[in-house]
Design a protein that fits this description.
This is DNA sulfur modification system-associated protein 4. The protein has 156 residues and is mostly helical. The protein has helices spanning 13-19, 32-45, 65-70, 74-85, 96-121, 127-148, and strands at 5-6, 63-64. It has a two-stranded antiparallel ribbon with strand order 1-2.
């Protein structure tokens, strides 16, 4: 496994490309790294991991982990590894198997998040607007959950 690169599932490649702003798209993200981190966070939120299956070799090609580090997102890959395995030794940078495992965990969470995004964005023309609506509805859901357990409204 090319542990020093984050791969994208072939069936999600077009979605990833369309989420990045370019001359052809008005995607809400500036880089593939940002798309993958957002997708991984979404996968974690829903506690969902999906194996990659076949990966894309072309655009977007596997993303070097140095790109994540340069943007400050390499810690997310490490934190997900620790959280998933409950083993601090997964941070060992000298062990290739640990690096492979961290990469696999991140890729699977990101793939799950991309699957969720595919469903949420289906039929949408403006991904930025739809993502904003999804985020707003999530915030509203959290506030509702917190309010549900607020016993102070029963006080007179």
């Amino acid at each position: 496994m090319a542990a020093n690169r984050i791969r994208v599932a072939k069936d999600k490649a077009e979605l990833v490309k369309s989420l990045v702003a370019s001359k052809d798209t008005t995607g809400p993200f500036q880089t593939y790294v940002e798309v993958m981190v957002f997708a991984a966070a979404l996968g974690v939120k829903y506690k969902k991991r999906v194996p990659l299956g076949e990966t894309t070799k072309r655009e977007p090609s596997p993303i070097p982990q140095e790109n994540f580090a340069s943007l400050g997102y390499d810690l997310i890959i490490k934190l997900l590894g620790i959280n998933e395995t409950k083993d601090i030794n997964i941070l060992s940078s000298r062990e290739e198997q640990d690096e492979d495992k961290r990469t696999q965990i991140f890729e699977e969470y990101a793939n799950a998040g991309l699957e969720i995004l595919q469903n949420e964005l289906r039929g949408s023309v403006d991904y930025s607007e739809r993502l904003l609506l999804v985020l707003i509805s999530e915030r509203g859901t959290k506030e509702q959950l917190e309010e549900e357990f607020d016993l102070s409204k029963f006080l007179t």
